[in-house]
């Protein structure tokens, strides 16, 4: 914990993020989580950590190189942060290895699945492994004998390598030699099922097939030992935010350099002897802040593809998305939108109504315009297909594509080119600002009058992530909202400030930050006047210092504040005289909590907003984000119910505190409330009522 430039307590954002990733690791060690899901959480933890080192740790390493004057101006002690990160990650990696070796592998055996190492292979399996190596792996392993100051091969980003400690057979007193061999997990599956008998399943990792076969690659040498390594490279795109030039071309050029960036993390088997580690540090020009210990295996995000052998009971029970009947069954889609606003809550609800919004518009002769903001796009997208079909049907289609969406830049550029070829009017990012709003608009001519319909969401228009990301989306024809949504598109397409401004929407670059500050100030005034004052916020991340200071001021004034923060939380709750009126929980479970909800008591009026924006400096100051009010009473009630369920979670909610303890929230209740399950059955009861099959499915809190 440290102090901000104004003296109030903060948890450094990257230390807080590591605390969040530990909550993911907690799921991997939770024995109540199905075994294959625990393995997936190991993969999620590893994937998260890889991105963290490619982006955030790379940023800190670069800050270490700047001058003292610049460091002082930044108010950041990157040297201490790097030390803290390494200490925390080393501790977590030790726990990761313990979970895998002492919990996951024995539990797999209990279910008849054996992870086989090379020394465990029987004769038939040895023959299978040797044949597999010769038939599939030999062209990719690329063995290289390392020679000091002469041979230093380039290590590909995130590629797996086996380092080999060698001794000359004919000269045993000669100094040890070193070599590296590539583990071709970029070409082949990481987990290879083996022939087995006795009714159990045997699996070997690709790494161990290379270990078994390495002696063939270095004739004349005795293999003393092998140790795995991996180098992660800096992935940040250094694009000058100039207000001139072709930004898209700059991004294309930077993408080609991403795989050859400087080292941001070198991981190695903690059993590696010092002599080999010292040699590798010199050979690959590594500094002490570059290197981190791990276990025997790296790239553990490959656990996403761990073979399940069709053993269903070791995975989560099915929770099929539920149809949203009022739209999916509607004979007249637009009449249903005119009658009332509609809320869907994915992944509990099916995403079909969103896809139908675009497919219906594409083929409706009364629709003249379709507009959408795309931040991340599915590889196979019915929405994109519908937009291209709409152009063929003679409609004007406008798509704003944010090409600076990290790690999706290349995919977004490909989609942009494909849409342009189909005749879609494509607008790309402009320098200095990311566009992160989740808005779509349809214009339709009805009885000679133009009418607009909008879909406003907290999540991307992405059919795949809609199956695992928990988000809200609202369909509306409310003129207060659709007219201002049109102004957002006008700004994106013309880069001209709308003359009428925004009265209902809060939009980044215009009134988002000031609007939120005014809402908090109102609660502060109410509390000081002795009136009821409350704020409920659900966010992915809370890091922006001015907003945190506002929340501290509100707490000090007596405002009751409830926060549900999935990831980064730089605010420190529970400090006497500062934040004793603030409670923070974090929920990590089967689905990724992604929705943003802002609720202000506001003297009894209760203002409710859904938003694309987290409360981070980048979101509030450097992005076009949208927060939209919920006016429809039935949707307001549903959102309040969902928030009540989440704040009552005593199974998957962790308490966020000054010590980053991540202990599970216990409320003394005998009734276990797991919010994601409760939400699913709340929506299932609602779906049954809408379809005419009203019945109680399971006992629940509602």
Describe the fold and architecture:
- The strands form six sheets. Strands 12, 13, 14, 15, 17, 18, 19 and 24 form an eight-stranded mixed beta sheet that branches. This protein has an eight-stranded mixed beta sheet with strand order 20-28-26-25-21-22-23-29, with helices on both faces.
- Strand 25 and strand 26 form a beta hairpin.
- The chain is built from 19 helices and 29 strands.
- By secondary structure, it is an alpha/beta fold.
- Helix content is 37%, strand content 22%.
- The protein has three domains: 11-314, polyphosphate kinase like (2-Layer Sandwich), CATH 3.30.1840; 325-504, Endonuclease, Chain A (2-Layer Sandwich); 507-690, Endonuclease, Chain A.
- Residues 237-244 and 695-702 have low confidence and may be disordered.
- Helix 1 (13-28) packs antiparallel against helix 2 (35-64), helix 1 (13-28) packs parallel to helix 4 (78-110) and helix 5 packs across helix 6 (206-213).
Topology overview:
Elements: E1 2-3, E2 9-10, H1 13-28, H2 35-64, H3 68-74, H4 78-110, E3 113-116, H5 123-137, E4 144-146, E5 160-168, E6 177-183, E7 191-194, E8 201-205, H6 206-213, E9 221-233, H7 247-258, E10 263-269, H8 274-283, E11 291-294, H9 325-328, H10 333-339, E12 342-346, H11 352-363, E13 367-374, H12 382-392, E14 396-401, H13 409-421, E15 425-428, E16 434-435, E17 439-446, E18 449-457, E19 469-476, H14 479-494, E20 506-507, H15 512-528, E21 534-539, H16 545-557, E22 560-565, E23 582-587, E24 592-593, E25 596-600, E26 607-611, H17 617-621, E27 623-624, E28 626-629, H18 633-647, E29 653-655, H19 675-690
Parallel strand pairs: 3-8, 10-11, 13-14, 14-15, 16-27, 19-24, 21-22, 22-23
Antiparallel strand pairs: 1-2, 4-6, 5-6, 5-9, 7-8, 9-10, 12-19, 13-17, 17-18, 18-19, 20-28, 21-25, 23-29, 25-26, 26-28
Helix pairs in contact: 1-2, 1-4, 2-4, 5-6, 11-12, 15-16, 18-19
